[in-house]
Amino acid sequence: MLLIKILKRITAEINLLRNKLMKFYRSLYANQHQLTSTTSENRYPELFEEARKALIGSAAAGINILSYGCSTGEECLSLRRYFSNSRIVGVDINRSNLQIAKSNIDDPGIEFQMSNETNIKASGPYHAIFCLSVLCRWEDTKFLQNCANVYPFSKYEATITFLANQIEKGGVLIIYNSNFRFEDTRVFGEFDIINTPSVSDSGFVVKFDSFNNRVETLHRHCIYRKKF
Fold this sequence. Notes:
Elements: H1 2-27, H2 45-55, E1 64-68, H3 74-82, E2 87-92, H4 95-104, E3 110-114, H5 117-123, E4 126-132, H6 138-141, H7 153-164, E5 167-176, E6 191-193, E7 207-208, E8 214-215, E9 223-226
Parallel strand pairs: 1-2, 1-4, 2-3, 4-5
Antiparallel strand pairs: 5-9, 6-9, 7-8
């Protein structure tokens, strides 16, 4: 019995230390978007299908796609299923993730680059940009009432405005699991909302308004078309 108590105490102390180290690690990257790299193939099939339908006939000579925050490349492979003749560019800030993606994926139509404005601009413009589970700090914001000190709206708006400017007229921006609503940004006026019958919301990540205050109302929209 005493040994069990000791083991439980040791386990609790290890977990506490691990959480403290993780919190410290995350504080070093306060100016970045989502820090978790967890991903899997075809994790949003309904969303991918809705995006495919939105792009039918929009680019006769092929589609140029950006996967923003591609992690180890599974999202790019998934996009290939839905956009067979497309060029797909995956960008990420994690060099290790990019090395894994390059090692595991042998597709001449898929390329991987470091995520920075220079590379993204050089490979554009795009008919579609996917921002899935990247424009957020989910683990750090899920219990907050105000996220200004962790992941401010200004950070989100600056990034999404840059990405929106890289989209061709008639192209689409797909945002899922973000901490903010695209409708609250100034650049939203350049886009129309696309209805997505098979996708009922924009993800489980909690939303905040442009003042960084938590929003409890359901947000549904996740695909937007740039106006002609």
